[in-house]
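Researcher: For the record, we're logging two predictions in this thread. I'll number them. Prediction 1 follows.
Model: Prediction 1, sequence and structure:
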Amino acid sequence: MISMPGISEIIVVIAVLAVIIGIGALLVRAFRK
């Protein structure tokens, strides 16, 4: 699937991980209320 990872692919992966972590943190904060 990933033959030659370029800078754009790395940026996309980092962006997706950041969004998932951000949503997870928001959910944890909401449930800990």
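Researcher: Logged. Prediction 2.
Model: Prediction 2, sequence and structure:
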Amino acid sequence: ISYALSDGVVLCHFINQIRPRAVQSIHVPSQAVPRLSLAKCRRNVENFIEASRRLGVPE
């Protein structure tokens, strides 16, 4: 499960289900680039954490 969550894509989509547009920019893999760079994965996770904080989720 950690592999599925490691790029942050599922996390960002999850929080957007709770609050639409909580994360406005999600980096997703494509057929041309099937694996995200570490920087894009990190940004997705950071966006998820920031959105969670704005929603009042305790750390």
